[in-house]
TrEMBL record:
Name of the protein: ABC-2 type transport system ATP-binding protein
Membrane-spanning parts: none
Pfam family, one: ABC_tran
MF (Gene Ontology): ATP binding; ATP hydrolysis activity
Source organism of this protein record: Fodinibius sediminis
Domain ABC transporter, first and last residues per copy: 6-235
SMART domains with a match to the protein in the record: AAA (SM00382)
Alphabetized SUPFAM superfamilies for the sequence: P-loop containing nucleoside triphosphate hydrolases (SSF52540)
Keywords: ATP-binding, Nucleotide-binding
Listed PANTHER family: ABC TRANSPORTER G FAMILY MEMBER 20 ISOFORM X1, ATP-BINDING CASSETTE, SUB-FAMILY H, MEMBER 1
């Protein structure tokens, strides 16, 4: 069986009387591209914050890279990369300065930072841009750089929150080519997205509705289970079912 990088059992988070994440159970294997879908307020971000060690669960348990999210948050942070929905690099620093800064934040030594910085600039074909301020770069370049920087310390898993929001279709496709390459090399990718077509690129997809994980499986399995032509139809059927339940 594939090595499990994430294991969650009845993971729950409440804020007062409100249940943001409601007893979700799932696992994610090494090198898997795992898609997390759901409307705003469905609980995706809260679940991700628990998995990255930023928020303690109210009930249930989860382990990420072998560490417990409730008691070993600092160890988890050393094993993961994170790319937020909002661009997270420093616009007033150059490409090269950002890479070196984050290398230091992730605990790399000076020699390793120099080596990794040169490798990233070459891989991204940004040699001519290495001394350009990041704030002046097109969004697509910024996002590719942010993704690469999140991987500079070779984490076991990278969490990505809406990474292609606002990016043009060609850049989105190039971005997913990067994701495939990283996964093939053994890094697990946990990605939230509101682009339903991107769910088709994932090995497995979970769909959250009102804090619950209402569907989980490969895109092909979900389409067969819900008699749908695409993941968007699956999502619509689940949302309509939730509306009926509330009614």
């Amino acid at each position: 069986m594939n090595e499990l990088i994430i294991e969650a059992q009845n993971l729950t988070r409440k804020f007062g009387d409100f249940t943001a994440v409601d007893h979700i159970t799932f696992d994610v294997g090494r090198g898997e591209i795992f898609g997390f879908l759901g409307a705003n307020g469905a609980g995706k971000t809260t679940a991700m914050r628990m998995l990255t060690g930023l928020l303690s669960p109210t009930a249930g348990e989860a382990r990420v890279a072998g560490y417990d999210v409730a008691s070993q948050a600092e160890q988890i942070k050393q094993e993961i990369g994170y790319m937020s929905q909002k661009f997270s690099l420093y616009g007033d620093l150059t490409v090269y300065e950002n890479i070196r800064l984050y290398g230091g934040i992730y605990g790399l030594g000076d020699e390793e930072i120099r080596k990794k910085s040169a490798e990233l600039v070459e891989m991204l074909q940004m040699e001519a841009l290495r001394d350009k301020r990041v704030g002046a770069l097109p969004l697509g370049w910024k996002q590719k750089l942010a993704f690469s920087v999140a991987l500079i310390h070779e984490p076991k898993i990278v969490f990505m929150d809406e990474p292609t929001g606002g990016v043009d279709p060609i850049t989105r496709r190039q971005f997913w080519e990067q994701i495939y390459k990283v996964a093939e090399e053994g890094t697990t990718v946990f990605v939230t997205t509101h682009y339903m077509d991107e769910a088709e690129y994932c090995d497995r997809v979970s769909i959250m509705v009102d804090g619950r994980m209402d569907a989980l499986g490969s895109p092909a399995e979900l389409k067969k289970q819900f008699e749908a032509e695409d993941i968007e139809q699956v999502f619509i059927k689940l949302a309509r079912g939730a509306d009926r339940d509330e009614g």
